[in-house]
Design brief:
Layout: H1 3-22, E1 30-35, H2 42-53, E2 57-60, H3 61-64, H4 74-89, E3 94-100, E4 105-112, E5 117-121, H5 128-131, E6 136-140, H6 144-155, H7 160-177, H8 179-182, E7 185-187
Parallel strand pairs: 1-5, 1-6, 2-5, 6-7
Antiparallel strand pairs: 3-4
């Protein structure tokens, strides 16, 4: 990531964390979301943020999707609301069930440790109901063909056909829900691949 862009993000999050610590809502984490097409570098950026601060929890939408066929559907928004947003608003622990892509079903419940910083990253997370409650919402752009190339290099050619369908689904989902427009900060070139 370009140093100047990284510093802008780190500065914004620092200000949010400091403000939260001074407020009466100090128990609630600073909630950051990162959306964009597959392969844009959302997970990489989330990891860089946590590494920079030395604390923070990351929830990946890949763990929340209900498989390929029920990923970018109303199920995602409902899952984020019930498993993440409502617990934040009610000051209770966040509990998720991570999707097991090998078994094609959700696994056991996992409790997300409390932290002053919580990042939700993944394709589709910046739907309006989620972005409205985020302290910072970011969109990372990347050309779809480059994103596909990066995903296949990372996850293997065996998901090539699924990813071709996914690219169409994500484009339709973004157009319908205006995910890019729902984000307050736009990163136009994608985060570097790891």
């Amino acid at each position: 990531m370009v140093l100047r862009v990284a510093n802008v993000i780190f500065d914004k999050i620092t200000l949010l964390i400091e403000a939260r610590r001074r407020s009466s809502h100090s128990a609630a984490p600073v909630f950051v979301i990162i959306d964009g097409p597959a392969g844009a570098g959302k997970s990489t950026l989330a990891s860089q943020i946590v590494s920079h601060f030395g604390f923070g929890e990351i929830i990946h939408c890949d763990d929340l999707y209900n498989g390929w066929g029920d990923a970018l559907t109303p199920t995602l928004e409902r899952t984020i609301r019930e498993w993440i947003l409502e617990p934040i608003q009610e000051s209770r622990p966040i509990r998720i069930r991570q999707f097991d892509w090998q078994r094609n079903s959700y696994g056991d419940e996992v409790v997300i440790p409390q932290s002053p910083l919580l990042i939700l990253e993944g394709v589709g997370c910046a739907v309006e109901s989620v972005s409205q409650l985020a302290d910072l919402s970011m969109w990372i752009d990347i050309p779809f063909d480059l994103g596909l190339e990066r995903v296949l290099a990372r996850d293997g050619m065996e998901i090539h056909e699924e990813m071709l369908r996914w690219i169409t689904q994500q484009a339709e989902f973004f157009a319908l829900h205006r995910n890019r427009e729902n984000c307050s900060l736009h990163l136009p070139y994608g985060a570097p691949a790891t």
